[in-house]
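step: validate -> pass
step: tokenize input -> pass
step: predict -> running
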Amino acid sequence: MARRAVQILPGLKVLFTSGYTQNAILHGGGLDSGVELLSKPYSRQQLAAEVRQVLGNSNGDASESGPGGARPGDTHLSAGGGNGLPILVVDDDVASLDATCELLMLIGMRPQPAASAAQALNALGGNDFDVLFTHVVMPDMSGTELARRASAIRPELRIVFASGNAVPHDEALGFEWSAVRKPFTLDQLRVALQPADGRQASRPAGDG
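step: predict -> pass
step: emit ->
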């Protein structure tokens, strides 16, 4: 399947994962160009490091890779790494929260995770964020209510909602916002985080 996919899209990166030895996919003593192998079992950190390497390895040179795809000296990026926008990311689903932060770091952002609205409000009190990126449905407080409170604290804060459903059009929110539908791609994430004058209208009819 991978060979056919690469024939269709020559620039496609391939990441294999297997519990077997990499000899099963060796050709001529090595992996094909643009192909990486992540051996099972692997941790979430190893998976994130391998995906970052595959996406960022434009020259296809994996010679400096260590076990699990990590380069020598490479460590798992913690929230807050990078030089891009400081973003407060809120989601009560820890796996989804971690995955979103990893994606944001892949595009150079500086995410700080919060697993609840209460944690997010506490973080706003002592940190300077450009963007609030929040899930909509959460048990302690909805993302829309969190956004209202956050905007009252910092009116300049940009709001991005993330949801599996369309965010209802609501003039009563009292602030500008944009939304990205789960599951989203890196490109969709980039668009959602563009400056307001580079985005589509913040409240398009029927799909926030």
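step: describe -> The chain has a mean pLDDT of 74.
step: cleanup -> pass
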